[in-house]
Amino acid sequence: MDKKLRDQFNRSFTQEKYDTYMQKIEALHPGALDFRNAETPVFVPRAFKEKMLSACDEIIEVITDPHFMELTQNSIPKDMNVPGEDAHTQFLVFDFGVCQNAAGELEPQLIEMQGFPTLFGFQVYHSQLTAEYAALPASYSPYLNGYNKESYTQLLKEIIVGNLNAENVILLEIFPEQQKTRIDFYCTETLLGIKTVCLTKVKADGKNLYYENAGKKTAIKRIYNRVIFDDLQKQENLPPIIDLSKEYDVEWAPHPNWFNRISKFTLPFIQHQCVPETYFLNEIKQAVNLNEFVLKPLFSFAGMGVVIDVQQSDIDAIKDPENWILQKKVNYAPVIETPNEPAKAEIRLFYFWKNEWQKPVGVLNLARLSKGKMIGTRYNKDKDWVGGSVAFFEM
Length: 395
Hints:
Layout: H1 3-12, H2 15-26, E1 42-44, H3 46-63, H4 68-71, E2 91-100, E3 106-114, H5 122-133, E4 140-141, H6 149-160, E5 169-173, H7 182-192, E6 195-198, E7 203-205, E8 208-213, E9 216-220, E10 222-225, H8 229-233, E11 251-253, H9 258-261, E12 278-280, E13 293-297, H10 312-316, E14 324-328, E15 344-352, E16 361-370, E17 387-389, E18 391-394
Parallel strand pairs: 1-18, 5-6, 5-10, 10-11
Antiparallel strand pairs: 2-3, 2-15, 4-18, 7-8, 8-9, 12-14, 13-14, 15-16, 16-17
């Protein structure tokens, strides 16, 4: 997006440089990188960064409103409601597409948001290696609000580990060794000194939870939750797991209910120029031009179930319209120049929220590049200069 840096990067790009860069990323945890890493970062001018941060500020006003819990009371399916919910999530992410408005200007458009973690550990190493690879000038940074690698890592540790012993804090996932994002789990272990534990390995003794750590029965006091319950429910032949409908003597970071409270469910309640019109399917009272909208299930992730070219037959086939939204299409701008066709970009901003803070603060990011209809591997098969990346912001 910054033309000077883009031209400079593209002129100096060689396949040999990229291969060396990739070797360093894969060496973080050999065999764990299970998604494509793009050839280029995204260089974001200050004005565009400020537009995203301004939109986030207004969205956060909705989330911090005293009535937000009441507003989102129907967001949590009964079979996914976990006891012990706290006052707010510790983590939020906002996904902005780099789009073009009617006047031909670049503007951010919110695609999705979630009260749930993402690649918080991996991006520490990824952004550093990418900055070195891109010969990033000192006036650009992947971090927000003055954070850097050290202060970001310290904040992440304060939120997840706090004053507990690291052995009493776990990263919880279902079959973590099979997840495409597992490199992030291993990077988080390195950063924070905690263990990644499969949900099937967590045991209950009354209200107390524990796991086996090097053969020792070890109490779990806090859970850094990475389990997506929609994914959990799709597991076949699942071994016995603890009853998550019971309340345990454990702290969650974040509590599972926040995955649904801050999600696609929240979008219809937000009115902002950087948030596309969004409606609950069951609440649409007048005809809309389906060509202008995408159809999304509320309870899914990673783009699963999204219908891009919506037909009336797609609407008619839905038996639970209260669990679907129509979101106005946005015009992704193919602004990332590559050696062949230009790429489109999404930027995911990370926000952290300590318990003593009144609201969350932006800290870091990741980016994703695409040449297909949507962001995601299945839309970008056999393409280059696509995949995971990082945005560097003009300070």
